[in-house]
Design a protein that fits this description.
- This protein is α+β, with helices and mostly antiparallel strands.
- It has two domains: about 280 residues, Aminopeptidase (3-Layer(aba) Sandwich), CATH 3.40.630; about 120 residues, Alpha-Beta Plaits (2-Layer Sandwich).
- The protein is built from 13 helices and 18 strands.
- It has a six-stranded mixed beta sheet, with helices on both faces. A four-stranded antiparallel beta sheet has the order 11-13-9-14.
- A hairpin with a 7-residue loop joins strand 1 and strand 2.
């Protein structure tokens, strides 16, 4: 039992729940700081030991609360933590998800404070993983502590170790440990709220299809003066090919991609421009409302190009150039079919007869929830009490492939996608941060949700 807790029964109601959560938050904050200090970058092979250390630290936190704890993995995968609190007789089980791995930091010079040193400035806690997604771990921990290790429903906490590299072994993990993960309600705490002070349930996410495209023109580089004007260079050909991904208005021009129904949430353009940091005079791509463009339509982006650096350039027509192309897919599309369409588009639009080779990459399925039923009703009530206002249903332009995998593995479970972040959390970027007021409200909401699930059942 957590120190200072006098709860003798897991079933709290009314104001008892928020008060219990707030009592445990100071210690939870210390534990969150300790987790942030572990550089658990799953994409870096050199950080494998830190990912292991992060799993061990996470396991220890829930073990102290009385959970049955295991560190699980499948061949080739990073460690996942499973902590189980058995259901009281007759009560359902909730699976609470988060992940303990984090993104690389990028250039440390872009951070105001060291990325793995949690730093509080104003109302925000800065550090890599502060919002994505060690806040999710801390949120689940706060709820368990508020109930003194005896929640009113069964709770299985699953903390994944490879979400930031696309959950490559999650399918195998779900197959191997399905019985341990089975639940009536699944709460995936890896999203964000619509704004500070505006809670949200994420009901749609876009999918992902990416590839590398290589353009070949010559068997060796040649003099740009002697041969230029008749011989195309690979970089110019690549640029012309990449330009075919959009029409003149900026809509994606790949045939066959799906557009989902437009969401009803009002997302003002000026707010979006400010959140994205768009420079004055730069136009938005595509047509339709902002919410439609970033949540319900596909997007295409060129993420990287392999070509000579400007500092190393010579007067030479280069023979080969390569780019990585990423397409986000609207809810309702199929990632594998879309990946084939992307590859076919690039091959069929090769300019001037240049040779094009496409290496198909990752495919992550989009997701759309029905967003109705008792669990959603309980969640909306809990959010309303925690924030003092109604929640909104929103989409996310990004891709979280594991959500579609959970939906496929547990088709009868209600899936709620939540989180403690907000649009200024800058997940994956420099100065990632967590709004501490939003974090408190998210913890209260999740604790209230468990109480309501128990009462409803």
């Amino acid at each position: 039992m957590s120190p200072g807790m006098g709860v003798r029964c897991g079933f709290m109601t009314g104001p008892e729940v928020p008060d219990a959560v707030r009592r445990v938050l100071p210690d939870v904050r210390k534990d969150l700081d300790a987790l942030i200090r572990i550089p658990s970058v799953s994409a870096d092979p050199a950080a494998a030991g830190e990912v292991e250390r992060s799993a061990e630290a996470t396991a220890a936190l829930f073990r102290v609360e009385g959970a049955e704890v295991e560190i699980l993995r499948v061949e080739g995968g990073r460690p996942g933590v499973l902590a189980r609190f058995p259901a009281p007789e007759g009560q359902p089980t909730a699976l609470l998800y988060a992940h303990h791995d984090v993104q690389p930091t990028g250039d440390p010079a872009l951070w105001t404070s060291p990325p793995f040193e949690p730093t509080e400035r104003g109302e925000r806690l800065y550090g890599r993983g502060s919002a994505d997604d060690k806040a999710g771990i801390a949120m689940h921990l706060a709820v368990i502590r508020a109930y003194a290790g005896r929640p009113p429903v069964g709770v299985t906490v699953f903390v994944e170790g490879e979400e930031e590299i696309g959950s490559p072994t999650l399918s195998a993990f779900l197959a191997a440990h399905r019985d341990k993960l089975a639940a009536d309600v699944i709460v995936l705490a890896d999203s964000a709220n619509f704004d500070v002070g505006v809670p949200a349930l994420t009901t749609t996410l876009r999918g992902l299809a990416d590839c590398e495209v290589e353009v070949r023109v010559l068997d060796h580089g040649v003099h740009s003066g002697v041969y230029g004007g008749a011989v195309p260079d690979a970089l110019t050909a690549l640029c012309r090919l990449l330009a075919t991904l959009h029409d003149d208005e900026g809509n994606v021009a790949i045939k066959g991609l799906v557009t989902a129904p437009a969401p009803e949430v009002d997302y003002p353009e000026e707010r979006f421009r400010q959140e994205a940091g768009i420079l004055d005079g730069v136009q938005l791509l595509g047509t339709g409302s902002v919410a439609e463009r970033v949540w319900a339509k596909p997007s295409a982006s060129v993420l990287a190009i392999d070509a000579p650096r400007v500092a190393d350039a010579s007067n030479t027509l280069i023979p080969v150039a390569r780019a990585k192309v990423s397409v986000r897919l609207a809810p309702g599309d199929d990632a594998n079919r879309a990946l084939t369409a992307l590859a076919e588009h690039l091959r069929s639009h090769a300019p001037w007869g240049v040779q094009v080779e496409v290496r198909e990459g990752d495919a992550g399925q989009p997701y759309a929830a029905t967003a109705e039923g008792p669990a959603y009703t309980a969640a909306r009530e809990a959010f309303g009490e925690a924030w003092g206002r109604e929640s909104v249903d929103m989409g996310i332009g990004g891709t979280i492939p594991f959500i579609a995998e959970f939906a496929a593995a547990f088709p009868d479970a209600a899936i709620l996608v939540t989180g403690a972040g907000d649009p200024d959390s800058r997940a994956h970027g420099a100065d990632e941060s967590l709004h501490l007021g939003e974090f408190e409200r998210a913890c209260v909401a999740e604790a209230l949700l468990l109480s309501k699930l128990a009462a409803d059942h």
